[in-house]
Specification:
Number of helices: 6
Bound molecules: zinc ion
Strand content: 15-25%
CATH class of the largest domain: Mainly Alpha
Helix content: 25-40%
Distance between the termini: 46 Å
Largest sheet: 5 strands, mixed, barrel
Number of strands: 8
Strand order of the largest sheet: 1-2-3-5-4
Radius of gyration: 20 Å
Order of helices and strands: EEEEEHHHEEEHHH
Number of domains: 2
Shape: elongated
């Protein structure tokens, strides 16, 4: 049986005989693995389409032991990202985080769209890498069922002077802070950062990246989204550590 789909390669695992296991984010099936036969060989027609960050039209055999790539037509390769180590290392982190989140049939399409749009903006230099990282982290968590509760202070609904609790994804105002154990990690949330987070969680796709922050607020947003991401995933990401050494 063959299956047609579109997807972006997030990772490659070398196997014997120049074969590679490809980890692919598809729109309709979520994250899948497919074997690319001989794609490591010098004469392989598939090698460009099997590169990490290649976005392909795919035809897959569905066999007993999983998918095997029958044909792959490269639609886009985000080659421009390779010219800049900063952008390329961020793209590596976005791929690793997406693999960790394990998009499925239900959210694969939305996750794929988010990744393609973010990589395009990164390649074009239309937004700063730091802002793209923050938007991607928070929006991906929202798409995966980890949206924070940004309706206001958890207890009284106040919307100013809030602190964010990355383990819980909740907010408290200064008057209600005493309800949380004092050792619970918290981060001050300046008002522009709070409003930006709301925007990232709630905006329709076409307006997601349409907001501006000062460099200070952008840095604060980045700290909050990264802390929230690491708390919610419980993850450590090698590619994030590498990205930070580049910055
Ligand atoms: Zn309150």
């Amino acid at each position: 049986m063959t299956v047609k789909t579109r997807g972006i390669v997030l990772g490659q695992i070398p196997m014997r005989d120049q074969d590679k296991k490809l980890i692919i984010l598809t729109g309709d099936m979520g994250l899948i693995e497919a074997i690319g036969r001989h794609v490591g060989g010098a004469r392989s027609k598939l090698s460009a389409a099997a590169e990490v960050l290649a976005y392909d039209d795919l035809c897959l055999f569905s066999g007993k032991s999983g998918y095997i790539v029958d044909s792959a037509d490269l639609l886009r390769n985000f080659y421009g990202l390779r010219a800049d180590l900063h952008s390329l290392s961020l793209a590596g982190y976005l791929c690793e985080l997406t693999r960790f989140i394990l998009p499925d049939r239900d959210n694969g399409g939305a996750c794929l769209k988010l990744l393609l749009n973010t990589l395009w903006l990164l390649e074009q230099g239309r937004r700063s890498p730091a802002l793209l990282k923050a938007v991607y982290e928070l929006r991906l968590l929202c798409l995966s069922g980890f949206a924070p509760d940004l309706s206001g202070c958890l207890h009284c609904g106040a919307e100013e002077g809030l602190a964010f609790f990355p383990l819980d994804g909740t907010l408290l105002c200064p008057a209600c802070l005493g309800t949380m154990p004092p050792d619970r990690p918290r981060m001050p949330l300046p008002q522009p950062v709070f409003l930006a987070m709301r925007h990232i969680c709630e905006a329709p796709d076409e307006k997601l990246f349409s907001f501006k922050l000062t460099p200070d607020s952008e840095a604060a947003l980045g700290k909050v989204t990264e802390a929230f991401t690491l708390c919610q995933t419980g993850g450590r990401f090698k590619s994030l550590d590498f990205y930070k050494t580049i910055c």
